[in-house]
Amino acid sequence: MPQLLRKLAFADIQMHKPTEHSIYDRSGNLILRKGFVVSMPGFADKLVERGYFIGVDDDVDAGPRKPGRTNQTATPQEQGSVFSEMASYVQAVARIHRIILSPPSNLANVESLIRTRANQLQHYLQQDTDAVLASLYLQQHGQDLRAHKHVLGAAVCGLLAEPLCQDDMAMQSLLCAALTRDLALYNFDKSLDARKDLGEIEQVAVREHTGTAVKLLQKHGVHDKQWLLYVYEHHEQPNGRGYPLGKTEGDIHELSLLLGLADAYAGMTIANKWRPGIYPANTLKELYLQKGSKHLESHIGLLIKKLTRFPAGTVVALQSGEIGVIKQTQHSRRSPMVYSIYDEKGFPRSEPMLRDTLSAKYEIKGCLSPERCKTALLAIKRIWM
């Protein structure tokens, strides 16, 4: 039982800063854990109006553990999870991108760095595919969005390409291409974020960015022909309307087409500074309607089958008034595994609660933006711990 110190006051909660104490109700039930960051306007007012208390509980508020404890006795929370590690993974990829965009250096083996990250991503996907996809969808805030899109595209490639890759090296070349496919677009992000019309010279440069990316990689010592080919071709389209060469279906490598599909999925799903991302279910529908060949139709069909209508990480509104997050897509095609992270009154839960969406009370009403659940990130992380 926690020790309730005093009633919560407005001064105890500052916007965008972690709380210094845990917050409890009159019965000692945990409402918000120490360190919770409040970013929703009016949320502090609701907490104070409800008469909650500042309290201390040794189990809840324990400080860092003493050194010397081994992983053999560490809890899953202490060991971390694929979901939590993906944010650091995106940052690592962004750092490699900055190296590639800088003058070549003998100190950095770019090919080795990218191959290491490709292998790591493949390991994460084998460990928990849903956690990878959910993390990339839900943890967009504060990330390098260009690097974020590279990683999501690579994850989708890893999800789809196994039947098409004859060996591990083929898969690795594809993942390396996915992690470096749009390097040259960094130069245009400011213009694109500001929604500025690109000048004629910039438009030409954008259409040539795949070739520019290939040259950047070659300058840094990358000579894997398949890797470079996938980067170069991934914006080609079966109908001949792609770029840079306007190739048609028979002349485009099948894995380049798959990379192009993954690139489109990531580009539509991840938000830009000037527009929100499209819900995964709507992205899949849009891609299906835009299919231009039997090859693409086959890839899109497999993507829909793998991700289902509500991919992992999708934020959903339930009939009960609660807000939940899809954890597992393959749990049941009719009833995906959903955890409630906000109660019916709009308060974030300290612990996620599993809901049966086959029950009329907890049916899925529709999708919501991941921005809607930024204040419940702690509960979301616990879903995958």
Write up this protein.
This protein is of the alpha+beta class. The protein has 3 domains: 59 residues, no CATH class; 227 residues, Hypothetical protein af1432 (Orthogonal Bundle); 69 residues, no CATH class. It contains 15 helices and 9 strands. Helix 4 packs across helix 5, helix 5 packs across helix 7 and helix 12 packs across helix 13. The two termini are 25 Å apart.
Could you state the oligomeric state of the chains shown? single chain
CATH C-level of the largest domain: Mainly Alpha
CATH topology of the largest domain, by name, is Hypothetical protein af1432
Element-level helix/strand string: EEEHEHHHHHHHHHHHHHEEEEEH
How many domains, as an integer?
3
Proportion in β-strands: 5-15%
Work out the number of β strands: 9
Radius of gyration: 23 Å
CATH superfamily of the largest domain: Hypothetical protein af1432
Structural class: alpha+beta
What is the CATH architecture assignment of the largest domain? Orthogonal Bundle
Mean pLDDT equals 84
Report the end-to-end length measured between terminal Cα atoms: 25 Å
Count, helices: 15
The strand order across the widest sheet is 8-7-6-5-9
Biggest β-sheet, characterized? 5 strands, antiparallel
Question: Can you summarize this structure?
Answer:
The chain has helices spanning 43-49, 58-61, 76-79, 82-100, 110-138, 145-160, 168-180, 189-193, 200-207, 209-219, 225-233, 254-269, 280-289, 294-307, 377-383, and strands spanning 3-7, 22-24, 30-32, 53-56, 315-318, 323-328, 337-342, 348-355, 364-368. By secondary structure, it is an alpha+beta fold.
